[in-house]
Fold this sequence. Notes:
Blueprint: H1 3-12, H2 16-24, H3 37-47, H4 51-59, H5 63-72, H6 80-88, H7 93-102, H8 108-112, H9 114-117, H10 123-139, H11 145-149, H12 151-158, H13 164-178, H14 182-196, H15 201-215, H16 217-230
Amino acid sequence: MDIDEIIQLLKEKANPKNAEGMKRFGIRGKILLGISAMDLRKLAKKIGKNHELAVKLWETEIHEARMMAPLIEEPESLSEKQLEEWVGEIDSWDICDMLTGSLLDKSGKAIASIPRWTKDDREFVRRTPFSMMAWLAVHDKNLKDENFEKYFRLIKEAATDERNFVKKAVNWALRQIGKRNMKLRKRALEVAEEIKKMDSKSARWIANGAINELSSPKTIEIIKRKSKKKE
């Protein structure tokens, strides 16, 4: 399947009604076709990993094509130049989270960029590292607690950012790191209490969300069950 065939298939699956609904959930894009993420994943699976196709899909600027690009990209083929270009061109939260959770969390080059991206002024660039932290906490079973503890400082520094898509990712990162095990849960709650004292609506929202979830009996039980499986 070449790029023209893929684009034609995407256009055939276009659903304007779904596209309007997606916009109400804050999904943006120059060309939005209204295709579900589930359908895109199915199509990407049929295509398989292909670096050249991934690059061409991203270059189309079609929202759904850019959603598919991380799914078929080969992590080992991701160059520094491509990495920076893709992250710099993110224009929607769902592309950000697809990129971080399907590709960047598997690339050491991207993980090394986390501290730098947290200081970027662009909304979706700054969302990227916190989305990555959240996905790493879920996906990478080999990372040690120390790998995540160093992110707490970055989370605190970004907690006063009032932009919706940044603060939601900061909250997400804090919650997911805290749900990794009981030790990180305790530390995440301590950090949440520190954030709560900041003079910022965003910081209080982030802190309260993390405290509520990490303090719930259901969450604690899930963390304990995960810990037992590792023993």
